[in-house]
Design a protein that fits this description.
3 helices, about 250 residues, 10-stranded antiparallel β-sheet
Length: about 250
C-alpha cells in the first residue's frame, strides 16, 4: 500500500538521522517502560501544499487520511527488544496487521513502527545508546492528560538535503517527536518536508491508550496545523476563481 511505503520511507530517514553524528557519550543500560498487552492508538493525518494551484494532492497523502486509526499492541519483551503488532484500520472498514519489533538500545527495528524509547531518558541522554549515531534528547516538559500531568520527552531534528544532480536545489526535513518519559511510548509526531514548490507533512497523535488517559491537543501542533489549513483554503479559493473566470470569459 502507498501509505505503508511512505511511512517506511520516513522511518528509514529517521534511522539515517541517527547516523549523523559520530562521537557519543557513555550511557548506562536502558530500561523498558512498556508491558505486554498494552495498546496505543494513533490518529494519522497528511497535509500537502503547493505554490502551483493546479498540482494534485499525492495519493500517498490521501492514503494516510484514509486511515481511521493505527494501533500498536505490545506483545512481548526480551531484554531491550520489544515485540509488537501494528494494525491499520481504514475508512472502508478493512484492516491490515503486521508483527514487528523495536530494540530501544540499538535502534534496530522491523515493521512499520519504531518510536518506542527507553524509560526515563533525560535531556542530553542518547536516544539510542548503542545505536549507530549519537542523537541526544532535547528537553522534557510536563504535559496535561485529562487534568493529570506526566513528564514528556521531546526530540527535534532539522536537516537540509541537496539534490545530487543539482546542488543548488535543496529541501529541508523538520521533525518533532514527543514521547512519554516513564513508558518511552510515542505521544505525537510532526514530520514535514519542504521542497522549493511544495510541502508535505505527516502527523500522528495518541488518541487512546490502555495505560493512561489520552493527552490534550499539543500546543506545538496547533499553529502549524492552522497555517496548513489556511494554505489549503487559499488553494481552494484560487481554483474556484480560475473556474469562475473560465465560465464568464467571452467565447
Amino acid at each position: 500500500m502507498n501509505v505503508k511505503k511512505l511511512l517506511v520511507t520516513m522511518l528509514i530517514f529517521a534511522l539515517l538521522c541517527l547516523t549523523t553524528f559520530i562521537a557519543k557519550p557513555v550511557q548506562g543500560a536502558v530500561t523498558v517502560g512498556v508491558s505486554p498487552g498494552e495498546t496505543f492508538t494513533y490518529d494519522l493525518k497528511g497535509f500537502y501544499f503547493s505554490s502551483n494551484a493546479s498540482v494534485q494532492i499525492p495519493e500517498s497523502i490521501k492514503d494516510v487520511n484514509d486511515t481511521v486509526w493505527y494501533k500498536v499492541t505490545i506483545t512481548s519483551i526480551s531484554g531491550s527488544k520489544i515485540a509488537l503488532t501494528t494494525t491499520w484500520h481504514y475508512t472502508n472498514g478493512t484492516e491490515y496487521a503486521e508483527n514487528g519489533h523495536v530494540d530501544i538500545d540499538t535502534s534496530i527495528y522491523d515493521g512499520s513502527f519504531w518510536q518506542i524509547f527507553a524509560s526515563n531518558l533525560k535531556p542530553g541522554d542518547l536516544v539510542r545508546p548503542d545505536g549507530p549515531g549519537s542523537i541526544t534528547l532535547n528537553s522534557t516538559y510536563s504535559r496535561t492528560y485529562n487534568g493529570n500531568s506526566r513528564d514528556t520527552n521531546k526530540l527535534s531534528l532539522d536537516l537540509t538535503y541537496y539534490n545530487v544532480n543539482d546542488t543548488t536545489q535543496t529541501y529541508t526535513r523538520n521533525t518533532i517527536t514527543e514521547f512519554d518519559k516513564q513508558s518511552g511510548m510515542l505521544v505525537s509526531t510532526w514530520d514535514s518536508s519542504v521542497y522549493p514548490d511544495y510541502t508535505f507533512t505527516i502527523t500522528s497523535e495518541l488518541i487512546d491508550s490502555s495505560v493512561w488517559a489520552v493527552p490534550e491537543f499539543p500546543v506545538f501542533l496547533a499553529l502549524p496545523l492552522f497555517m496548513i489549513t489556511i494554505a489549503f483554503a487559499v488553494i481552494a479559493i484560487k481554483k474556484k476563481l480560475i473556474n469562475l473566470t473560465d465560465k464568464i470569459s467571452p467565447t
